[in-house]
Amino acid sequence: MKNQTMAGSIGSEIRRRILDGRYPAGSQLRQDGLAAEFGASRIPVREALFQLEAEGLVRIHPHRGAMVAPLSPADAAEALELRAALEPRLLALSAPLLTEPDFHRAHGILEDYAAALRDGDTARWGTLNTELHLLLYGRANRPRALGLVGSLLAECDRYTRLQLSTDPAELERADREHREMVRLCRNGHVSAACALLVDHINHVATALMAFLGEPADATQTPAPSHVIV
Amino acid sequence: MKNQTMAGSIGSEIRRRILDGRYPAGSQLRQDGLAAEFGASRIPVREALFQLEAEGLVRIHPHRGAMVAPLSPADAAEALELRAALEPRLLALSAPLLTEPDFHRAHGILEDYAAALRDGDTARWGTLNTELHLLLYGRANRPRALGLVGSLLAECDRYTRLQLSTDPAELERADREHREMVRLCRNGHVSAACALLVDHINHVATALMAFLGEPADATQTPAPSHVIV
DNA sequence: GCCTGAATTATTTTATACAATTTCAAGCCT
DNA sequence: AGGCTTGAAATTGTATAAAATAATTCAGGC
Asked: Which CATH number does A6-68 carry?
């Protein structure tokens, strides 16, 4: 596709399998096995693992190998906290600059989302969610923040996947909020869209913490209100 | 030191040289030359470059080699914008939990800073600045955000280094603001410290944009005020 | 004279082979 | 019996060498 190098395509495939859950959290990733599985040598596998470690999906201990990054409530809370801090700013910058083709693509994603919801295809939900969010922030002209948010969205998908198999009502709520956000952006109600986005992320955070059996404020104190910036 | 592997130590050394300016922005990093320079093979060099690319210090084009990430005003503005979004939150969480040994270390850094200021040792300034900031945020219990801010501080040092050689007055201002921030944290005035931190970062941003000859709002519109979070 | 295009060169990328490190278990000593 | 050392097995880290890809050069034609 866009990866002209073998390390890149191996990395994309491993990432997909981690997000799918095919490589469960905490499992060992042996270079030899992966190399055999992909019909390649260990060196491109190593480089792919290094790249994934930078994204936070893999942890490498020197001389002890690589493992899929474990899932911890504290980690999920921090990722969602970062999202709540960054995404509203991106949306505020990007929303006024969104074009008609952008909204067209957004509606296409929403339709796919509805179809996946009917089919119970939870695997597609994560990628569509990430696509929609990144699309809405795409005109902000903040490449670094955008890449960072992309990593955070991918990580959050690992947690929400666990939750959604037992709690499908959250999917419909997310769908409603997504549609409303797109509508607000299209009608120029930027600050309302940002406020809804904050609520959207915070709700995901509280629902996820409840699902994980952790009181929301145990691992992570909320962002203090006197930081207005 | 703490790098038990050759790739790690090579990566640290290349990072140091990029931050020093010994490898100037935009210069090509040939694997063969680096390998010969470090007396190693090209493979640990490759892995080091991959890690540095994740930090944003190096850009790799497939089959075309690696180069030191170029310096652009827009990039600096985005890095400072992210710092302004993230650091106050970390400080608000960490400041109430700072211990007496932490403040002792902070004062040590401030003394070293003053010494470096007397000696005109601009190379040490960057690392001391990073150390101080990360120390103040260390009790926030946000490992991911802390690592991210560390990368952002390193990148900002590349720009401020250029500026400070011609504008040493900024160094003294930074010193005053650092001392005041530590004092406010020690006396429990957390919100005042956070407000000062925001001003500190924003001032660095405007001064840097002025130095780079770019009007502050040309490349980057400021964060909109209606995002309160 | 300038553009097109194949051969050449330089560099990156990958494969194979070897060395260093960790882990686990068995045996020894206290 | 318990803890420590020691050795073997497995796995990772590194070096060397071959394959692949992009940039360059130089010849040939329009």
From this structure: 1.10.10.10
